[in-house]
Amino acid sequence: MSGALLILLGVLLLGGILSGAPVSFVLIGVPTLIAFLGATFGHFDLGFLAAFPSRAFGIMTNDVFLSVPLFVLMGGLLEKSDIAKRMMLTAGALFGDREGGMAYAVVIVGALLAASTGVIGASIFMLGLIAMPAMLQAGYSKSLASGVICASGSLGQIIPPSILLILLTDQISSAYQAGRRSAGEWAVEPVSVGDLFAGAFIPGLLLVALYILYVFFMSKRRPDTCPPVVMRDEAGNRTRPDLKEVTYSLVLPLLLIVIVLGSILGGIATATESAALGAAGALVMTAMDRPGVPRWRLAVMLAVLPAAIALVLVKFAGGAQAGPLAAAFGTVALVFLCVGTLTALAQELRHGGVWAVSVDTASMVAMLTLIVLGATMLSLVFRGLHGEAMVEDFLHGLPGGNMTAVLVVMAIIFLLGFVIEYVEIIFIVVPIAGPPLMAAGVDPVWFAILISMNLQISFLTPPFGYALFYFRRVAPASVQTIDIYRGILPFILLQIVALAIVVLVPGLATWLPDAIYH
């Protein structure tokens, strides 16, 4: 009877999701219905549902989950400003006047946007609106231009600080601890955000390198598909960025990325603390970008950057325990940081879009919260119907051991990526398939990175890849859907190659976390 209820649960979940109903309501409502149906026939203990309030409270107070709104706010602030646009124009002016140069600029800016905003739809929109017309006007192949923009704009799925990795951390950590406890190991260290960020660093760079190598190959094999592009301003004059423009457009965002990721990877700050620094930095950069800002206000806001660096250094030295001099230095830096941030906030509340970005952030976080709560209910009901034991028996019964089991789970995730978004996949699949794999000895960081790379592939795969729909909305009418599909196929193959490399060489995902934290 439990097996029949599990099948009914799966059918109703799939039907509810495909019906267009809010996924969070489906994830909460369907398991609840199945739980009461099972209890009616004596095949489900309603005591499992009694654990839901404590589980929900635990999620809401989880430090990892608390960093999500701040990272979303950071990305929203940068996305709404002209900073991303200037990054593209400056990189285009630097690299565009050579064969394949504009494509190189798109890949580099896509990686920078991934590490600063992580908003994939916005990245694709921006790259499509700015780079695509210039590339087509210069004679770029429609397919190559479409493919490089879609692939580069989707790097936010794997390059930290990815929201996907943050959400994945909590689920992987819980699955790892549950799996190791079932294997008889009780002293289990949790998986941290820093572990996954460090684990994704090399695979993310691997993808960027593969994209650049492909563009280089095309520039040598078929130079007619990616000719030089001369960037011009609105007056038609060729743009040549000077040192000040390069610093303002590329170096400052890069410094923000270094502060945020460096403080996490170095173990200096928690994910929430780093996200707060990132949100403050994004707010200040957006405020400084406004025309007509008084010089004194610019100076006050500019002091935020060295103040943030000083605070990171003080904490690295041991904080207040490092001595009275370090405490005084940190206090002064904190004052400058707060004054500059409050100055930027006051300006943006009067003249900017910080309120609209905050509303969008609240809406997104509310949606994520409901999905997380729904997935928690699903996990409880699935466990109450003995689904975990069935999954464990199935995975352990596969020939080939752990590798076959991991590949089967990857195939399921890839197929689910066609119909539901990555958030639901994370909170549905990992709690179910994760514990038995972790019990069998699968490395949690390696498994998490494989999931994130897999979901990035499904994000690009025709005909349902979200990146393709984002790009279609901004692509010129002359670019047909078949051009987009042709252009994205080589990059899908490159992603599969990168995934296969990480499968065969797990050290690419596990070496850096081990080197930093162990």
Characteristic terms for this protein:
globular; 518 residues
Could you give a quick summary of the protein structure above?
The protein has 518 residues and is mainly α.
Backbone CA Rg: 24 Å
Write down the domain tally.
1
Low-confidence stretches at least 5 residues in length (pLDDT < 50)? none
- SSE succession: HHHHHHHHHHHHHHHHHHHHHHHH
Give the overall silhouette: globular
Percent strand: under 5%
- Count of helical segments? 24
Task: Measure the end-to-end span.
Answer: 46 Å
DSSP, total strands: 0
Considering DSSP H and I runs of 4 or more, what fraction of the residues is helical?
Answer: over 70%
The main β sheet shows up as: none
Structural category is mainly alpha
Mean pLDDT: 80
